[in-house]
TrEMBL record:
InterPro entries reported for this sequence: Aminotrans_V_dom, PyrdxlP-dep_Trfase, PyrdxlP-dep_Trfase_major, PyrdxlP-dep_Trfase_small, SP_NH2Trfase/AEP_transaminase
Major enzyme class: oxidoreductase
Listed EC numbers: 1.12.-.-
Identification of the protein by name: Soluble hydrogenase 42 kDa subunit
Binding site for substrate: R342
Keywords: Oxidoreductase, Pyridoxal phosphate
Modification N6-(pyridoxal phosphate)lysine occurs at: K197
Domain Aminotransferase class V: 26-332
Amino acid sequence: MRQPGRHFLQIPGPSSVPDRILKAIGQQTIDHRGPDFADVGKAALDGMKTIFKTNQHVFIFPSSGTGAWEAALVNTLSPGDKVLMFETGHFASMWSSMARKIGFTPEVIEGDWRGGAEPDRIEARLRQDTHHEIKAVCVVHNETSTGSVSPIEEIRKAIDAAGHPALLMVDSISGLASIDFRFDEWGVDVCISGSQKGLMLPPGLSFNAVSEKALERAKSVTMPRSYWDWHDMVGPNSNGYFPYTPSTNLLYGLNEAIEMLHEEGLDQVFARHARHGASTRAAVRAWGLEVLCARQGDESGVLTAVLVPTDYSADNFRATTLKHYNISLGNGLSKVADKVFRIGHLGDFNDLMLMATLSGVEMGLEKAGIPHQSGGAQAALDHLKQSTTCPSDTQNS
Ligand SMILES: *Cc1c(COP(=O)(O)O)cnc(C)c1O
């Protein structure tokens, strides 16, 4: 049946793609080895350095984010190498199971899925590792299954405080371009990202930002690799080209996205996401429901995971809101399946879109018979009215 009006894609990635980017992607595909391509490739590779905040290396793969996870591991480790991972949620668990599948030895610090990675626990484990068997520490920056953020700068300090040479690898697939990230300043060795979250693109591009130290390490490790090999990228990339066919049209879109992010200003983008996260949490509190992220200060500006009361089905609630209000909300993954729903407030998003989203959630709670108090959308509206980081306030005055 036809549903009039626009669909609200409020899952925490893919985020909805702005018209400017759709238009850029719609341009004719060109010869990826021809003279005109160099400008496209260079703009993308150089532009992404400004998003990662690095003067080191950025590699772009035609793959989903999962591919860039694999690239990070196979370029920096030898078969059997031990990596220390922190279980912040579903995505951290998936990354460690990938590491095991392809022949590494992940050691997982268990977490309760209610906050970010804890630097002191990482430091304590590294201090015990006197023979330096751990080759890398892997953490998820924004854990998309729980809505928690890990303190990357503090984790680097913890590694240094332990005097440990392990590389720091960070999955910022859903954090980059939505919450503050500083590759060089924070001393990250490999950052993994993807196109379909904060970067506002369709799925299909992934990224590795790579430190000199990690690129050097890649020369001596013995893990077999081919498609993901950083070293095959370096030569062609220096002129804006790629060793195999890149996703030309998504690169058009990426260059548009980078321009849009800088037009708004990265700091504004981060403030906007933080503000929408706070407004959403105000709504959840007013409904009398619980935010999954329980550690104060770790809450994400990208998404909010909300626990439904025991004995109620989050998936049934999501199906009801989709059917009646034409809005897609994120589902609970693995351990929290059917127990939480996730509200995405990332990417090309503004106050009115947030209000429509939260109104849809509130009407859905009512329709699905989930016990709650009304007034959540009003609480978010009050928060929006009182907080003043709206970019247009400063730009147009
Ligand atoms: C989306 C996401 C992934 C998976 O990326 P794909 O593009 O689906 O392969 C991994 N980690 C995090 C934190 C994510 O948000």
